[in-house]
Write a structure and sequence with these properties.
The structure holds 2 protein chains of 2 kinds. In chain A, helix 1 links the parallel strand 1 and strand 2. Chain A is 31% helix and 23% strand. Chain A contains 13 helices and 14 strands. In chain A, 39% of the residues are buried. In chain B, strands 1-2-3 form a 3-stranded antiparallel β-sheet. In chain B, helix 2 runs antiparallel to helix 3 and helix 3 crosses helix 4. Chain B is globular, with a radius of gyration of 12 Å. Classes of the chains: A alpha+beta, B mainly alpha. Chains A and B meet through strand 10 and strand 11 of A and loops of B.
Chain lengths: 370, 84
């Protein structure tokens, strides 16, 4: 184990992160995490973007990433990921890595020890912890944690939607992919269409969840594996994209959400960042909808209220104790409003990335800037 | 029967701005409260009773007690629904 005094301070590390896709209706969290790090006090390290598509915006946003590299899709497996990371490490050293997407976590968990042997710091959940918060296992987790959640079941046959009412599954229902996408459906024909769409995009199984009318509230925090919830930030969504993602939100201080978060962190003994999505139903009760094993795309709001959780996670990696983190008290009433803008990309930049899998080397970029 | 006041924890979660903008730190909802409502809310946040609110508003607004009582009960009814 590296002693804290023997290693450079985390503010000078080379930090790799994923999830730098930035589609306005459903952005990945990576660019927001990068922004938090850039604005962390004293940060002068490098940020390395790891992407899956040549058009992932973070690859070209110098305010987000100093350099960028393409990774193989998660479906290609852990060995392909490790091989590609080894190629990248030959010319772009990495001190810490922050995975920011759900689907890639099993691969990063599989290569965690190998990456640590290469000197890369990671804080990841264990595979069993990750599975416990899978969408189809939420009822069991919630029963253990004493948190309410709507019924959910896995489907492999779309004929379910023709007779579900007789089994107590009345419309509207929520049809979801295992990793991403969720649609509210109001009829059997609409449900079948969304079911096929999810199968075509994400494969089987498809999940169906009872729909809860209510206001969505979210909590994000860090776990250190002890069951503690560190640096929680709570947010109520105020405006949504067509995909139900927050386009605007405001920080809140909800004792019920806080208590539910504590119970879930304790039940999971989570390591790393986590987002808890809950709905307050018409009776005023909170129901757990999803647990995301990563920072949310709205994580910049945490920096906005003095709780820069990406910076706090790196400080924990550096050996700082949770009680020593410099986190402000909760500050309800602070809003964020997301906006989209264009970045201009020269043909050379896309060509370099498409042909080599990497943006131009840092020294080349620096000489271009000069 | 006297209209009950919302719970003190729910009332304390309301942050009242000088111009009547009121933010519920628990739910994230916000409201616009008129000057009489602002007075009533501040008195209730001090832990005072419905009668104390009515007495203060009767004196402040120079209105018949029955009119103030009806207004306060209507406000309490709305408030209870909003913070529940």
């Amino acid at each position: 184990m590296i002693r804290q005094a023997d290693q450079p301070h985390w503010t000078s590390w080379n930090i790799a992160l994923t999830g730098i896709n930035a589609k306005p209706d459903n952005p990945g969290p990576g660019c927001a995490v990068a922004r938090c790090l850039r604005q962390a006090a004293g940060f002068h390290g490098r940020i390395i973007g790891l992407a899956y598509e040549t058009l992932d915006a973070g690859l070209y946003l110098r305010e987000s990433c100093d350099s960028g590299h393409l990774l193989p899709y998660p479906a290609t497996g852990a060995a392909a990921l490790l091989e590609r990371l080894d190629e990248i490490l030959q010319h772009d050293p990495v001190d810490a890595l922050l995975p920011c997407l759900d689907a890639e976590l099993p691969n990063f968990i599989a290569v965690e020890d190998e990456l640590k042997r290469r000197g890369i710091r990671l804080v990841l959940p264990q595979r069993a912890q990750l599975r416990r918060r899978d969408k189809d296992r939420l009822p069991a987790l919630c029963a253990a944690a004493g948190v309410a959640t709507p019924d959910v079941q896995c489907l492999v046959d779309e004929r379910f939607f023709d007779h579900c009412g007789a089994d107590g599954w009345d419309y509207p229902l929520l049809v979801k992919g295992v990793f991403y996408d969720a649609y509210v459906v109001y009829s059997a024909s609409e449900a079948r269409q969304r079911y096929r769409q999810i199968v075509a995009t994400w494969g089987y199984p498809v999940l169906v969840q009872k729909f809860v009318h209510g206001e969505e509230v979210n909590l994000t925090a860090l776990g250190d594996g002890s069951g503690a919830m560190i640096g929680e930030v709570m947010m109520k969504k105020q405006a949504l994209t067509d995909k139900g993602k927050a386009w605007a939100g405001v920080t809140i201080d909800d004792p019920d959400l806080h208590a539910a978060g504590r119970r879930l962190f304790d039940a999971l003994k989570w390591r790393g960042p986590l987002e808890i999505e809950m709905l307050r139903d018409r009776a005023g009760s909170l129901q757990l909808i999803e647990i995301n094993p990563r920072f949310p795309a709205w994580i910049y709001l945490a920096h906005g209220v003095g709780r820069n959780l990406p910076a706090a996670l790196l400080a924990l990696m550096h050996g700082v104790k949770p009680s020593q983190l410099n986190l402000a008290p909760p500050r309800p009433g602070t809003s964020f409003i997301r906006h989209a803008q264009e970045t201009i990309v020269a043909l050379d930049e896309i060509a370099t990335l498409a042909m080599s899998g990497s943006t131009a080397h840092p020294q080349v970029l620096a000489s271009r800037a000069a | 029967m006297e209209t009950p006041l919302p719970g003190s924890r729910r009332l304390r979660a309301l942050v009242l701005n000088a111009n009547g903008y009121t933010f519920d730190t628990r739910t994230g909802r916000s409201y616009s409260v008129n000057p009489s409502g602002q007075v009533a809310l501040l008195i209730m946040q001090d832990g005072k009773s419905r009668t104390a609110v009515i007495n203060a508003l009767v004196e402040l607004c120079q209105q018949p007690r029955a009119v103030v009582e009806a207004g306060v009960d209507d406000f309490l009814d709305q408030l209870t629904r909003c913070v529940s």
